[in-house]
Amino acid sequence: ATQMTQSPSSLSASVGDRVTITCRASQGIRNDLGWYQQKPGKAPKLLIFVASSLQAGVPSRFSGSGSGTDFTLTISSLQPEDFATYYCLQDYDSWTFGQGTKVEIK
Amino acid sequence: EVQLLESGGGLVQPGGSLRLSCAASGLTFNNYAMGWVRQAPGRGLEWVSTICGSGADTFYADSVRGRFTISRDNSKSTLYLQLTSLRAEDTAIFYCVRAQSHCGSRSRQFDYWGQGTLVTVSS
Predict the structure, then answer these.
(1) What is the pLDDT of residues A4-42, one digit of tens each?
(2) B107, A46: Cβ pair inside 8 Å?
(3) CB interface of B with A, residues 18-77, below 8 Å
(4) 8 Å CB contact of B109 and A91
(5) Going edge to edge, which strands form the sheet with A19-25?
(6) How far apart are CA B83 and CA B96, in angstroms?
(7) Residues B59, A55: C-beta atoms closer than 8 Å
């Protein structure tokens, strides 16, 4: 099974900062990757699919890139509502989540 | 509007069984792969199982294969997960999820999630 290694596990940032989260797959997964946002006590929300396509209704400050084994989620200008935990999910070989990245207020 | 409503969670003893249900509305149910994702308290997300639209093909995480069984009743727009031989480490919120399309589609990310149902395995 494809393993997903996500980093960092947590980060502290300020409103307006540019934030980057990465996921690395243990094998090539084309661009079969999505990104999710989860806030405490809530179900996750799909942000990005096929590595770089923005899900409907998601703000354009979120973007994704990558192909093969290395992927990135970028928040161009962090907003107060963006403090949450983010997960990647590969759907190339069954499904596997990354371990998550908690984005906290600095 | 798509809605997914889970039920069936609760407290069960180690070695016990439980059946989770997910009633779906607002979609043509058989057109979509459906699945379950769980989250242990304070932990990350773990994909559990997925079933294709017709029900003919199923997929399981290694941690649950042989113990959990996913199924669906397209006439009732309902997804199920039968949990057997439960262990303490199965304690988690179980989310019902809809994939973006059918199993053969290019992207199979989960675009709709239920609110979750809590399964607690404890004596």
Answers:
(1) 999 999 999 999 999 999 999 999 999 999 999 999 999
(2) no
(3) 35, 37, 44-47, 50, 59, 61-62
(4) yes
(5) A4-7, A19-25, A70-75, A62-67
(6) 14
(7) no
